Amino acid sequence: MQAAAQRQLLADVEAFCQEIRPFEELCYVEHRFNDQLLPLALKHKILGMPVPEAYGGRGADTVTYALALARIGREGTGVRTFFSGHTSIGEYPIMTWGNDDQKKRYLPAACNGEKILAFGLTEPEAGSNPLEMQSTYEKQGDHYVLNGVKYLISNGGIAHAIVAFAYPTDRKGRISAFIIDTNAPGFASEDLTAKMGMPTANTAMFEMNECIVPLNNMLGAEGDGFRIALGTLVSGRISVAAGCLGVIEDCLAEAISYAKERRQHGKAIAKHQLVQEHLAAIEMARAASEAMVLRAAQAKDASAAEPNNVDLKVKADLFAAQAKLFAANAAWDAADRAVQIYGGRGYSTLYRPGRHLMDVRVCRIYEGTDEILKLKIAASVLGKEYEAFK
After folding, report:
1. Residue 339 exposed, middle or buried by CB count within 10 Å (0-12, 13-18, 19+)
2. Of the listed ranges 126-130, 230-234, 252-256, 265-269, the one predicted with least confidence
3. Measuring CA to CA, which residue among 384, 364, 332, 293 is closest to residue 128?
4. 367 is catalytic
5. 3-state DSSP assignment of residue 337
6. Per-residue pLDDT tens for 51-102?
7. Helix ranges, the chain (H)
8. What pTM value is reported for the model?
9. Could you give phi then psi for residue 141, rounded to 5 degrees?
10. Which residues partner with 137 through β-bridges?
11. What is the mean pLDDT of the chain?
């Protein structure tokens, strides 16, 4: 991406963040979905940041997109999750594995706000091991019929189209991927509001009951679904890691400001050594997370430039896992420390650190749990023959 275009995109993201904050503050207190996400993202033309300009996007490389998500992450994990669901794991698989017809039908509409996207992999009994999914598909004449339930899907209740996965009905073949229009016969969704955090973001489950999907909405080749899912998760993990970096940045800024203003024992608490210990730890988390996020994004760009280079693809996959694992835990710790600095006020959702603490906890679960990522990283240093689930 050219430097001027990058600066303009990041400026547009900054403007969006400035506008969304007061709405996010209000919606959080009222515990409701932030309905200004879409109109403001459309206003600032950031609904298709990494999508090629030919399809109405901004053509951002992974590094630029990660910087944008880090800034958005400062406004809350719920705000960033909307973009991850719509772009990182919604638009990305269509950009990468979609045919020309699918790209033309979905990407421009996703960029101009006509279609919100989501990614439907997780099921009630299939989380860390998607190979245990129960969803099925069967070809019937000029369409496929899908059955199954997907669970805890970001944007699942507001999406117009969802990239979803299923086995053949006889389960003799491999998983395939589909683009499902949510107005299709046999599709129904239900919002999930009983969450620890992210009240301003949409999370839903959906059921496919004899759901009709046109033949030309299979994404990629038949049986390539698991490969598409894993490839998409690399993009998703970088987006989560970048958002967590933003959480750390905001926790640091809020903690510094409060520590300078709050006085106890005759002086600003910023002068107390144990408060400084917390601030130093948050700053180290910020610096280390930033380095890992940028390394992962650079590796992803290098892999995209040489798609047939297996070594670069493996490196991008590993670096994304490392960045996500590290940044998610660092953000959780940073938010906890910021809450401690705020003391009693930190326990209130009227203040930002407490909201960050509740919201960022999910980042250690979705797009690959801590445990799964640790096993992945361990196998990378031990060798594939030591993979835990081989």
Report:
1. buried
2. 126-130
3. 364
4. yes
5. helix
6. 999 999 999 999 999 999 999 999 999 999 999 999 999 999 999 999 999 9
7. 3-30, 37-43, 62-73, 77-83, 92-97, 100-111, 225-261, 273-305, 310-342, 352-360, 370-382
8. 0.96
9. 65, -120
10. 146, 168
11. 97
CB 213 within 8 A of CB 329: no
Among 210, 232, 211, 226, residue whose Cα is nearest residue 317: 232
For residues 179-202, b (16+ Cβ closer than 10 Å) or e, as one string?
Answer: bbbbebeebebeeeeeeebbbbbb
Spot the catalytic one: 306, 367, 371, 385. Answer: 367
* Rounded distance between C-alpha atoms, residue 383 and residue 185, angstroms: 47
> Quick check: 123 and 146 in contact, CB under 8 A?
no
Exposure of 248 in the CB half-sphere (CA atoms within 13 A): 31
User: CA 21 to CA 233: how far, in whole Å?
Assistant: 28
Q: How many C-beta atoms lie closer than 10 Å to residue 112's C-beta?
A: 13
Average pLDDT over every residue of 259-263: 97
Q: Alpha-carbon distance 350 to 68, whole Å?
A: 26
pLDDT for res 389: 79
Pair of tokens at residue 98: 């979609």
Q: Considering Cα of 89, then 374, then 356, then 284, what sign does the dihedral take?
A: negative
Nearest Cα to Cα of residue 59 among 29, 87, 31: 87
Phi, psi dihedral angles at 359 (to 5 degrees): -75, -40
Question: Alpha-carbon distance 364 to 302, whole Å?
Answer: 26
CA distances from 65 to 47, 72, 227, 327 (A): 11, 10, 23, 17
